[in-house]
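Lecture 7 notes: from sequence to structure.

We start with a single chain of 138 residues. Read the sequence below before looking at the structure.
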Amino acid sequence: MQIEEFAESDQPAVIALWRRCNLLRPWNDPEKDIARKLKVQREMFLVGKIDAHVVATVMGGYDGHRGWVNYLAVDPPHQRRGLARAMMDEVTRRLTALGCPKINLQVRDDNLEAIEFYEAIGFARDRAISMGKRLIAD
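Now the structure, written as tokens:
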């Protein structure tokens, strides 16, 4: 798998991948999420490709205090082959290069496979409650 920075031409394949991985929710417009990311640290939006086909994504960011990871996805036929770990290794490398001391991420509490994966690569559950407030309605 080749890991590259997202290019606008990747957008249809990325959104289709997110749909296959059940990452999309009605309140998050993927086109708007991508457009927003491209305005801030676009180099932290990565795609993994096999034979020029998008098979994985990860979106990272660093706010000067914590790093964040969103939209980690691996196409179901390619799962359990180390691709998610490779994507996380690359985004972690890039965050570390920026001086990021800790990565945070959110996982839906019913996504047990994702929780197991993140724990297997060294993430631990924080004693915190995730809260959000929508500022712009999609």
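The mean pLDDT is 95. Keep this in mind for problem set 3.
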